[in-house]
Amino acid sequence: MPQDAFTLRLNAAELNAALSGGRINKVNQPEKDEVSLLIYTGKNTVKLILNANASDCGVYFCDDEKDNPLVAPNFCMLLRKHLQGAEITGVSLVGFERILALRFRCVSDFTQAERTLYAEIMGKYSNLVLTENGMILGALKTTSVDENCKRIIFSGAKYTLPAPQDKVNPQDVDALKALFQTKPEGDTARFLFERVAGLAPCTAEQIVKSYRGGGFAEHVYNYIFSDEISPRVVACEEKPVDFFARAEEGKAFATLSGAQSYFYAQRRALKAREASKRKIDAAINAADKKAQKRLLQIFEKQRECENCEENRIKGELLTANLYRLERGAKGCELDNYYDGTRMKIALDARLSPSDNAQKYYAKYRKQKRTLDALAPQEAEARSEAEYLQSLRAALACAADGEDLRSLEEELTEAGLLKTPSVKTKKKKDEISFRTFEAGGFRIYAGRNNLQNDRLIKRGKTDDMWLHAQKYHSSHVLIVTEGRRVPDEVLLFAANICAKYSDAKGDRIPVDYCALKYVKKPPKSKPGFVIYTDFKTVLTE
């Protein structure tokens, strides 16, 4: 992000115009490196974010609601003590540094003071420092006397600016002219960034790109200190990449504040989606690991019981040949009348031939009971593994926060995610179906397995139901209202079904039938159905 002095100067001008005369109504610190000020401007109430995080540092407006900690951090309490009810007298850039100064008039029943909150927007060195008469009252990030640092920041110390860089101040036109007496060799934009203070690499590139001849030093000065703005947010594959105070490409905004607010809102939404995806994926992986472990245990027990028929035959052969066997023998070899071979049978010398036969029968019955008990367990474990694969397919197809929220709802109901500690009164069907329209027909697609089940209950018997053949996919419903569904509408719905499935490539087979032929077996997993009287269409 180009949070350089060039951008911050324009940002300060907008903030000054919008906030001067406003009063601080509330101070919060929802995150470790972020402070929010609720400000009444005289016309409306706005929320100003002061972020000192290394990757999101900036000062911008925001509409998002964040949960605040039950116990306010120390710096938040300090700001509430000194700035609650204070009037904003101005916002400005400090010199040509990456520092915004928010000035306040603080009046109480007994005192009156002028205080300044410095927002240092410097990447990983970003900080918020509150001062009065040049002395530090407190800071978000402090240093101690014991630390070997060039700049001391703690309560009671004098506030000093960061050490200046060995670069030319662009406010000094003569210094700029001296710098550009000769045309720099190589990359001019890089030369600008390395030798002129307060410029990000992208800003330096824009300055060079906009040069049309004449004195280059004058062009640099005029570009930096012009009040002309054309704020834009640049995105790549629908993901916000950066915002610019002056650019020719990207989504345009009327103000720089608007561009920043949009950029950070999109960035926060993207981070929230990625965090939600990671949480859901971890929950599915953990459940799948348990399901696979359970299947392996079942297979191992089945393997141990796979010779149960052999034990039954041994018991029968011993029973049929009791008259030929003597007590105390350790084994025998008898004719197997099932396949005509000779079978060797181990015997317990301590038991009689009859007891040895009963021992083999008992072992057979135990193994048979085990196999009978394992059969439904195997079916249940396979059903669980299949259900988890459907969740994985839904996660892969999740396109927005609504899809992810619906998946979190399903995983919570399935017990794969912990129930949120803060209970809400939201209805289960608050998350809407994916909705489409084609040829005058309304088409709905479920976002998760729970919605797939609701879709079946919601539809009427003559509505058209679709599902990808032999793949995990969303259930799709065409609301017919008694009309015949044209081929183009059917193909459109089939493409939706294929899009939200784990199938890859073209010409994916999609089954379709009237909803009356779709049944959900009792006690089956969410999203599982059986259907008959169907036909198949290939997507394009």
Would you count the extended β strands for me?
22
- Tell me the span between the first and last alpha carbons: 41 Å
Question: Structural class of the helices, strands and pairings?
Answer: alpha+beta
| Cα shape | elongated
Task: Give the biggest sheet.
Answer: 6 strands, antiparallel
**Strand percentage, roughly?**
15-25%
Q: Can you summarize this structure?
A:
The protein is of the alpha+beta class. The chain has helices at residues 5-19, 74-83, 173-179, 188-195, 201-210, 216-225, 256-304, 308-320, 353-397, 401-413, 449-458, 487-499; strands spanning 23-31, 34-40, 45-51, 58-61, 87-93, 99-107, 112-120, 127-132, 135-139, 232-236, 239-244, 251-252, 331-336, 341-346, 434-438, 441-445, 464-468, 476-479, 509-514, 518-519, 530-531, 535-538.
Question: What would the keywords be for this entry?
Answer:
alpha+beta, 12 helices, five-stranded antiparallel β-sheet, 540 residues, six-stranded antiparallel β-sheet
